[in-house]
Write a structure and sequence with these properties.
One of its GO terms (cellular component) is plasma membrane. This protein is α+β, with helices and mostly antiparallel strands. The protein is built from eleven helices and eight strands.
């Protein structure tokens, strides 16, 4: 493809998805616009699932996957266009994000032919949903401290899993969980871990919702007591490498759509500040201007990161983007409360009915923790990007 042809091709693709969204976010799906964002994952879940299956039937899921695995094989620039147009249309938050953006690319890169044949069609058609079994009570940001264990059952040919995972998003709505477990007795840190695929509808799996500051509970803790895992992705004991690749895919192209949502939040907050007079305060006005500049920086970082995506998965440089957007979004929540003033302290209704700004403030407190805390991101940047000496271990 020549450089002259590329803009036309991308623009025609952008027009195609824009027109499809305009024609299909109507009727029974019209009310889903804006539903299900951070802190609101509980909203219209069944309807959003139906919407995503509608997308799948039209070939609009897994656009970046190779065609042989059920995707469109869209090049990087078209994937960017898809996620941006989806966000610009204010289409509902995706229910299949973890399967499509995390596990699917991981299976394409590390799975066997049998695993790809078994799971990828179900993800692409949104018939099976996935959750992530990484964090534990004593292994959150320090993921290498995993204690969940699994032993191989020679007679049955599967793994027996025992342990606990926490902060497992959407576990109650999912059919499967990819789990990092220690499979080599006596191993420590990154060694001896395996990446297992565990069905959740079986004896030995107990899912308990966790109520958050927002009053919602898409987070869960999951207990495994003799649960069975029929699949290991990659070689047993090589789970750390596979798990890190999954985290790399998490920082992929879809983050460009996230920036569109951030811009919408900032523009709406600026309009509120003009209406209620908060913008007359020079300190508020300065913070709004800094937020605008910060958002432009986030986009530049995201575009720079795409070089890693084009190579197969973002490298450690992706941590720069993560720490920047997480801190920016948390500060936007704080700024929103200052723009709202004292009224922002009062719930919109009983018993705990939050407005969008209150929910943004409360949920964004977690932005600097999930998907790798700021402290961990700084270590990655220092050690793996800048080449500084590794942090001393106690």
């Amino acid at each position: 493809m020549s450089s002259v042809e590329a803009p036309t091709t991308v623009e025609s693709f952008r027009t195609e998805i824009r027109n499809w969204l305009r024609a299909n976010l109507t009727g029974e799906f019209a009310a889903l616009r804006g539903c299900g964002g951070p802190g609101r994952e509980h909203e219209a879940f069944a309807e959003r699932l139906a919407w995503e299956r509608h997308m799948a039937a039209a070939g609009w899921t897994c656009v970046g996957w190779p065609v042989e695995y059920g995707g469109r094989g869209a090049p990087l620039e078209q994937q960017v266009a898809f996620h941006e147009e989806y966000a610009l249309a204010d289409a509902p938050a995706r229910v299949n994000h973890i399967g499509e953006q995390l596990l699917g690319p991981t299976l394409i890169a590390f799975g066997t032919d049998a695993q790809r044949a078994r799971f990828l069609p179900e993800i692409a058609a949104v018939r099976e949903l996935w959750c992530q079994g990484y964090s534990e009570p004593d292994a959150g940001s320090d993921l290498a401290n995993v204690r969940t264990r699994a032993t191989f059952d020679e007679e049955r040919g599967d793994w027996v899993v025992d342990g606990q995972k926490i902060w497992t998003s959407l576990a109650l709505e999912s059919q499967w969980c990819f789990v990092v477990a220690r499979t080599e007795p006596g191993s420590v840190r990154h060694r001896g871990l395996s990446y297992l695929l565990v069905p959740l509808d079986q004896p030995g799996v107990d899912i308990r919702p966790i109520t958050q500051l927002t009053g919602t509970s898409e987070f869960n803790e999951v207990f495994f007591d003799g649960a069975r895992a029929p699949h290991v992705v990659g070689a047993p004991g090589d789970g750390w490498r596979v798990a890190m690749a999954t985290l790399g895919f998490e920082r992929g192209v879809s983050t460009l759509g996230q920036q569109v949502g951030f811009r919408r939040e900032l523009e709406t907050l600026m309009e509120l500040a003009r209406r209620n007079g908060a913008a007359d305060d020079p300190l508020i006005r300065d913070r709004l201007a800094r937020a605008w500049i910060g958002l432009e920086t986030i986009r530049c970082n995201a575009l720079r990161m795409l070089e890693g995506v084009a190579a197969g998965a973002p490298g450690p440089e992706a941590s720069i983007g993560k720490i920047y957007w997480a801190t920016w979004h948390r500060e936007l929540g704080e700024l929103a409360m200052d723009v709202c003033g004292a009224g922002g302290m009062i719930a919109a209704g009983a018993p705990y009915d939050l407005d969008d700004w209150q929910r943004l403030f409360l949920f964004s407190r977690a932005d600097t923790l999930y998907a790798g805390s700021n402290e961990i991101q700084r270590n990655i940047i220092a050690e793996r990007v800048l080449g500084l000496p590794k942090e001393a271990k106690a």
